[in-house]
Write a structure and sequence with these properties.
It is a single chain. Helices cover about 25% and strands about 30% of the residues. By secondary structure, the chain is of the alpha+beta class. The protein has a 7-stranded mixed beta sheet with strand order 3-4-5-6-7-8-9, with helices on both faces. It has a 3-stranded antiparallel beta sheet with strand order 12-16-14, sandwiched between helices. The protein has helices spanning about 10-15, 20-35, 55-70, 100-105, 185-190, 205-210, 225-240, and strands at about 40-45, 50, 75, 90-100, 110-120, 120-130, 135-140, 145-150, 155-160, 175-180, 195-200, 215-220, 225, 240-245, 260, 265-270.
Length: about 280
């Protein structure tokens, strides 16, 4: 959307940006928490999904922050998708200013701010902030991941995180499932893993739980948007996991798929379990 010269960012170049990007996510989260949910306006998009003044406030803070921090890197935000100019073949920021708007509108706390840096179609850096929970999951692929605890809008603690090995054969897996977006294919996939324990969660919090070893797997075998997936994808992979389609193939972002849809994905805490 913003006109920028082709730029390729690798992990060495991404690492110095991580703290500044985290600060942007923290500020966006604070803006969301500052909105009175009982009085805010809720509008509908063309696809039927809701958008609120909190989505727009967070979007403004993130886009303004990125323009100051890294004006040479292109960006794509859910709230500005009409300005998108795919394909993004080099590096670009992929943003969901408020993931889980339905959760937010319903008064629940499982909504997130998602910010990813994607290079050559693969998420390299991801930050998933859950402002109402006081938690941020972040990571750089090849550099590791961590969980940050926030107190009074500042980072109070940073703990390295890793995904966990899946239970032995015959033992039940813990599976992250969506509270708002169930589908028959995903339910069939879970049912095929006998005795699976469902952890019902909202938004990209599910990726964070996989990354920190709280659940084993997060499958979604129905379409969702690239900005819902990219940041969590990077965090899970940075934490030692893997994200694929149902056949074990990698996902690609920003390359011009219609409506920026991801047809399906599975976030595996244990990469050896992926096809």
């Amino acid at each position: 959307m913003n006109e920028a010269k082709p730029t390729v960012i690798g992990c060495d170049s991404a690492a110095p940006l991580l703290d500044e990007l985290t600060g942007i996510v923290i500020r966006a989260g604070a803006a969301i928490l500052g909105i009175d949910r009982s009085r805010m306006n809720v509008a509908g998009k063309g696809d039927g999904s809701p958008v609120t003044e909190a989505d727009l406030a967070a979007d403004h803070i993130i886009v303004e922050g990125l323009a100051r921090l890294a004006p040479h890197i292109s960006l794509l935000s859910e709230e500005r998708v009409h300005l998108a100019t795919p394909p993004y073949k080099d590096s670009f920021f992929l943003i969901d200013p408020l993931d889980g708007t339905k959760e937010f509108v319903a008064g629940r706390n499982e909504f997130t701010v998602n910010l990813a840096l994607v290079t050559h179609g693969a998420p390299l850096l991801g930050i998933v902030g859950a402002p109402a929970l006081g938690v941020i999951w972040r990571g750089i692929v090849g550099r590791g991941a961590e969980r940050l605890t926030l107190r009074d809008g500042a980072i109070a603690e940073a703990v390295p995180i890793r995904t966990r090995r899946c239970p032995p054969r015959g033992a039940p897996w813990t599976v992250a499932v969506s509270r708002s977006h169930g589908d028959a294919r995903t339910e069939g996939f879970i049912d095929a893993r006998g005795g699976a324990v469902r952890a019902v969660l909202g938004s990209a919090v599910k990726f964070g739980r996989v990354a920190e070893g709280g659940v084993d797997i997060y499958p979604r075998l129905s379409p969702t948007s690239e900005w819902d997936v990219a940041a969590g994808h990077a965090v899970v992979v940075a934490a030692g996991g893997k994200v694929t389609d149902s056949a074990g193939h990698p996902l690609h972002f920003g390359l011009g798929r219609e409506d920026f849809l991801v047809p399906e994905f599975i976030a595996w805490g244990d990469p050896d379990e992926a096809p």
